[in-house]
Amino acid sequence: MRPPLRRALVTASSRGLGFATAQALSAQGMELLLCARDGMALAEAVAQLRAAAPGRRIEGLVCDLTEAACIERLQEAALALWSAPPQVLVCNAGGPAPGGFEAVDDAAWRTGFELTFLSTARLLRHFGAAMCEAGEGRVVTITSSTVARPMSGLTVSNALRPAVAALVRELAPQWAPRGVTINNVAPGFTATARVEQLLADAAGRAGVSVAEARAGRLAAIPAGRMGEPAEVAAAVAYFCSEAAGYVTGQTLVVDGGASLA
Ligand SMILES: NC(=O)c1ccc[n+]([C@@H]2O[C@H](COP(=O)([O-])OP(=O)(O)OC[C@H]3O[C@@H](n4cnc5c(N)ncnc54)[C@H](OP(=O)(O)O)[C@@H]3O)[C@@H](O)[C@H]2O)c1
What we know:
Shape: globular
Distance between the termini: 44 Å
Strand order of the largest sheet: 3-2-1-4-5-6-7
Bound molecules: NADP nicotinamide-adenine-dinucleotide phosphate
CATH architecture: 3-Layer(aba) Sandwich
């Protein structure tokens, strides 16, 4: 029997869903490489994770996922940390800017594409190849419930998240014979800084207060509440676990039923 997977790279992980995922994987005993742009927040996240798992190898790299050099630096950081590539890759990034179709100009499409799709494709190309060569690995992308149902005012997400989910489905049967699974977690409305940004934007566009915008969003969620980051992270951690070895190419929507309502 192979030893359990231990080396996990979680991108965009100084707060929110990425950080919650790092916590969940740490609870499974994994060593971690994190990244984000703000070095101070990243250092705090690393310190918090180390305090919860003394002696565990946990490092952070300051980089911007929209830059190709970030992925190269992550490869170098992984080698410096483990002398080997990661066995678990969670592709997360910041969310694309909100806005309806008329508000999205060429520059906004390009920026959204680089953040939402290209950063993921680069991570998959570089780290997926190493995992396939090693003959084992778990990959999870974090996208959005917009893969299941478009959301008003999130045009870039509505258009580009499904492209990531499609890539996951394409790669799953190619990588399965080489021991690598790849799945997608699609969160709905979850309590993070990103959601506060989206609520402020929605309130501004609708000319209502943030509280009214929040109440409107909550009313559309059958579960009647926002999700917690740990609930999304638990879905990611499942796909990364030994137990999920026979599950690949799937999207798990974690949205309190909102995309079905
Ligand atoms: N929360 C939700 O309700 C929800 C729902 C659906 C989908 N999502 C998606 O899930 C993802 C995570 O959302 P979240 O709510 O956790 O967001 P968040 O609380 O804003 O956290 C985003 C994290 O990503 C990092 N980051 C952002 N841009 C980056 C970049 N270019 N390079 C490297 N790191 C970057 C941030 O750190 P720095 O700013 O320091 O770089 C931070 O650590 C986003 O794509 C979001 O759209 C969230």
